[in-house]
Amino acid sequence: MTRDYSQLFPGSTPTTPPNPLRALGWQSFFASQLDADEMTETPPVRVTEVHRSGLRARGAAGDVQLPPDADVTVGDWLLYDAETPGRSRRLERKSLIQRRAPGRETRMQLIAANLDTVFITTSCNADFNVARLERYVALAFEADVTPVIVLTKADLEDPAPYVEQAEAISARVPVIALDARADDVQAALAPWAKPGQTVGFLGSSGVGKTTLTNALAGTEAATQDIREDDAKGRHTTRHRELYITGTGPVVLDTPGMRELQLADVSAGLSTLFADIEELATTCKFRDCAHETEPGCAVRAAIEAGDLDPERLMRWRKLAAEEELNAATVHEKRDKARATAKMYRRVQSEKKNRR
Ligand SMILES: Nc1nc2c(ncn2[C@@H]2O[C@H](COP(=O)(O)OP(=O)(O)OP(=O)(O)O)[C@@H](O)[C@H]2O)c(=O)[nH]1
Ligand SMILES: [Zn+2]
């Protein structure tokens, strides 16, 4: 059987019924990475779940399973090789959210691939914290995901002062205030939550991420929970990590996103604090610490009221933190290598002694 895949390529006119791949978040960026033959022989599937035992993915023809692969994460697109699923080719990513692996592992842990927009969520109350929002924004920039700040619980408190502070974070980051339980959530998020787009939520516990996910994914979110028996025959409820709404965006909701911390975000910090870094290049001294040095452009901007001193402080803190984080990742890796080397030496010495 030959399928007509011409409609999946950019520039073609959409046909009805809606393209099933588009409902999964398929975009011309991915289509441009393969030709019509590959499209037929190895149809694209999107990874919906990652488990130790393997991957689950969904494509035009339904759900498939693949062997585990450390270089694949939720949201990835694979060209499914039905004969040898392990050989399925991963398409180049549009974006990638990753973090330092917790505990003793030294590698980066992949959290989510191919998100278009991340809704950085906080509430108009004590949860609101500019420094934390900046971290999330830097992380989004680092991952090549568009950040949008969403302020929930606007029905409980006057959102105006929160909106004002959030808008000061970056001219490149839109800010929206809403009641997450209201009917107009879909409309408010519509500019980013269009069909074919993939979105996710970041933020502390209790700020309304689940409420917003349900608003976008509708009843789908609830009905996509899967009941299954675990190894011991107990019933367990498993959440899908990718909600496919059919008519709206794809909503990515992995446990990893909820536990996310600041990872390597040096590039993201440079984007967020581009103004300060730009100013710093005009300081008289190259290694200016922007403290008491003469000819410091950064201090001059503060004195002129053009730069918020608090913002400078937060930039310093984040930059220092980032330096420390990056160092520990590298140090850990060096240490692990040294240990492995020593182990091999001991083993070979043992062998030689025999
Ligand atoms: N009044 C009001 N209540 C809200 C709003 N957003 C969320 N809530 C309520 O706050 C509580 C927590 O919302 P959730 O959506 O579960 O928050 P969450 O971010 O998913 O929390 P975790 O699942 O712990 O990560 C629920 O009782 C919501 O109904 C809002 O905008 N206004
Ligand atoms: Zn300076």
TrEMBL record:
GO cellular component: cytoplasm
One MF term in the entry's GO annotations: metal ion binding
Annotated cofactor note: Binds 1 zinc ion per subunit.
One GO biological process term: ribosomal small subunit biogenesis
Primary location class: cytoplasm
Enzyme Commission no: 3.6.1.-
UniProt function note: One of several proteins that assist in the late maturation steps of the functional core of the 30S ribosomal subunit. Helps release RbfA from mature subunits. May play a role in the assembly of ribosomal proteins into the subunit. Circularly permuted GTPase that catalyzes slow GTP hydrolysis, GTPase activity is stimulated by the 30S ribosomal subunit.
Subunit structure: Monomer. Associates with 30S ribosomal subunit, binds 16S rRNA.
Name under which the protein is recorded: Small ribosomal subunit biogenesis GTPase RsgA
Organism, scientific name: Maritimibacter harenae
Gene expressing this chain: rsgA
